[in-house]
C-alpha cells in the first residue's frame, strides 16, 4: 500500500501501528519498572565498586595536588639540565605551604618511592626553608643539600606530574618504571607477585582437574540411579553447601594437621612412621584438598543436569551398533556431556582463582594465593590502590579466560541446569 | 539358499527383574530367517523385555536364546551384530546424519571408501541422500525415523530389532512409514523382530505376529489367521473388534456346540471347549453378522438398534441382542437401505462357524 489511505486504522481513527506502540509502551515501562530495583542493586553493588576500584588503582593525584605551582612551572622544563629559577621558586612556595600544614610527610614518602634518599633531602629542606630570603631560590635550595644539584631528583618530581599512573599495575607483575622512564623488572629476590599469580593459576587448574575427575562419576551415578537413591546422594553432595565455609575449612584443619585424624590413621595402618608424619596442611596440599572438596558441588551440579538429559538409549544404541562399552562412552556419551564439563570447569576455575578463606586458613606460606595478597594490602599495608589494581588484574584474567573459553567451546554450549 | 526355520530361537526363556514376578514366562519362539515377526501386546506384557534380551541389554533368568543355532546369552550386545531401532530413534545428536550411519562401520574398522559407499546406499534406500550433512535435530520426526532405520541396517546385520519405532509419529506419517519399512524388509530380506502395541501396525507389516499377554505368547500366527481364527478370548478381544457372549455349553457334537446364554441359546464353533457344562465366551466378528441375511444361517436373532454412528465408508450399529447391549455391527455404505433407524427391531444372522466358543474370560 503506497498512500496514507492504505494504512489500517483502529476504530477510533488512530493508525493501528501507533496504537499498538502506545499499548506496548505501557507494558515496556511496567517491565522496566519491575527490573529497576535489581538494576539499581547491580549498579550500586557491582558496577560502582568496580569503577571505584579502577579509579583508585590509577589515581595519583596526591603529589600533583600538593605541588600545583611546581608542576605548572615544570611544563616548560625539558628535563635535560637543572630546571630554571622559576621551578625552584614554585617548589619552594608549594613546599612551604605543605610544611606549614604539616602534610609534608606524605610528599616525602611518595617522592622517596620514586627516588631513594629523597626523604632526608626534603626533611632538611623543611628545616632550612624557614630562614630563606626572598629571591634567588635556586641558589638557596642548592645550598641546603648538594643533591638538589643532581638533576635526577628533579626528574623524579616531574615523573609524578601526571594525575594518573599505571605503576601499581606494573608492581602487580613485579615491574616498575625506573629513573629513565623505562619499564624494568624488580630485583630478583623481590619478585613475589609473579610467583603468586602462577601459583594461583596452577592451584585453580589442578583444583578444577581434581573436581572434574571426582565429579564426573558422581554426576553419572546421580543421573542413572533410581530416584530414591539419587535423592539421597544428591543431599550428600549438597550437604557441604549448607555448612558454613569456615566450619568446613576448620574441619579440614582438624583432619589434615600433623597430629590430625588422617595422619593418625596413616600411622596406625603403618603407612608412615610416627616421628615422620607428613605435612598436609599449611602448604599446597592442604589448599588442594580443602578447595577441591569445597568446590566439588559446583562441578557436580552442571554435569548432573546435562547427564540427566542424555537418554540411556543412546549408549544402548552405540553398543547395539557394535561399539564396545568404552568406545560407546567416549564417542557417544562423553561428547554429549561437554556442555556440562565446560560449565562446571569454568565455574570452578573462576571461583578457585579468586578463592580467599580456604588458602588463608590452610594454605600457609606456600599455599597462599593472589587473593590473600590482595587482602593483605587491603588490611595491613593499607595500599588500597595496589589492592585495587591487583583485584582488577584478577578480574581481567577471569574475563580473558571466559573469552578464550567462548572461542574454544562457545558460551552458548554452557548448560548450568 | 534355504531359509533356516529357527534362525532366532527363544528356548524356555524366563525373565524376572525382582525375583518375585516373572515378566516373561516359559517363552518358546522360533523366528525364520528373513521373516518379519511382530511382538504385539498391551504394555507390560513382556514384549519389550523379550526384545531387550535378544539385543543383549537384559539377560534371561532362565532358558537360552539362540541366534543361528548359537547360544547368545553370554555374548555382550556389541558382539551380537544385531541392528536395533529404538523407540525415540536414539540418533546421536552431536553427529551428522552421515556420521550416525558411519558409526557402526567405523567401529568395525571398515575402510573409508567402503563406508562412503555403504552410507550412501543406506541413505538412498530411505530416500535421504541429500541429508547426510544435517544434524538429527534439523530433521523432522519421520526423517529421523528413517535415519534410525538406515543406521540399523547399514552394517548388514542378520537381525534387526525395532522397538515401537513409529510410536512418536502422527497417524498419516505412521502409515506411510509402515509401508516403507515393509518394502525395505521385502527388498533386502533381513530378519525383523518388531515390537508394537498397535495392532493395525502389526497386521499391516508382519509375516507372523506373536500376541503377548502376561509374559506369555498367546498366539503366534499370520495376521489373517490371527484375526479370523483367534485361539483364545484374549487374542479375539485384543485383535480387531469383537462381539462376545458369555454362556455355558449345553450340547457339543460334530464340530459344533450349543451355548446357553442368560437369554436364549446360540450355535457356535467349539475351539477351546470340550465338554458339556463348561463355561465359555463366544466371539463373533462384527462383519460376520449380517442384517436380514439372504441365505439361511444357523443363528438367527432379533435385535433392537440402540445407536447408529456414521463412519463414512461404513456405519456402526449398536444393538441389544440376546441381552448383550454392546453388540456391534458394521454395515458397508454400499448396502441398500436396510431400515437402520434408532429403535427398530432387525433380524441378525451368522454362521455357527464364525461364532467361536473360546475360554471364559
Beta-strand proportion of chain B: 35-45%
Q: How many individual β-strands of chain B?
A: 20
Counting helices, strands and paired strands, the structural category of chain B is: alpha+beta
Distance between the termini of chain B: 45 Å
Class derived from helix and strand content of chain A: mainly alpha
CATH fold descriptor of the largest domain in chain B: Rossmann fold
Radius of gyration of chain A: 32 Å
Order of helices and strands of chain A: HHHHHHHHHEEHHHHHHHHHH
Distance between the termini of chain A: 48 Å
Whole-number average pLDDT of chain B? Answer: 86
Outline the biggest β-sheet of chain A: 2 strands, antiparallel
Percent helix range of chain B: 10-25%
Briefly characterize the structure:
The complex is a heterodimer of chains A (417) and B (361). In chain A, 68% of the residues lie in helices and 1% in strands.
Structural overview:
The complex is a heterodimer of chains A (417) and B (361). Chain A has 19 helices and two strands. Chain A has 417 residues and is mainly α. Chain A folds into two domains: 61-160, no CATH class; 193-413, MetI-like (MetI-like fold), CATH 1.10.3720.10. A two-stranded antiparallel ribbon of chain A has the order 1-2. In chain A, helix 1 packs across helix 19 (384-408), helix 10 packs antiparallel against helix 11 and helix 18 (370-379) packs antiparallel against helix 19 (384-408). Chain A is flat and about 100 Å long. The two termini of chain A are 48 Å apart. Chain B is α+β, with helices and mostly antiparallel strands and 361 residues long. Chain B folds into two domains: 8-233, P-loop containing nucleotide triphosphate hydrolases (Rossmann fold, 3-Layer(aba) Sandwich); 241-358, Beta Barrel (OB fold (Dihydrolipoamide Acetyltransferase, E2P)). Helix content of chain B is 23%, strand content 35%. Chain B has helices at 47-55, 97-106, 112-125, 141-153, 171-188, 199-205, 223-228, 233-238, and strands spanning 8-16, 22-31, 36-40, 62-67, 70-71, 82-85, 159-163, 191-196, 208-213, 216-221, 243-253, 256-260, 265-270, 279-284, 290-291, 299-310, 314-321, 324-332, 345-350, 356-358. Chain B has a six-stranded mixed sheet, with helices on both faces. A five-stranded mixed β-barrel of chain B has the order 11-12-13-20-14. In chain B, helix 2 packs across helix 3. Chain B is globular. The mean pLDDT of chain B is 86. The interface between A and B is medium-sized, with 19 and 28 residues.
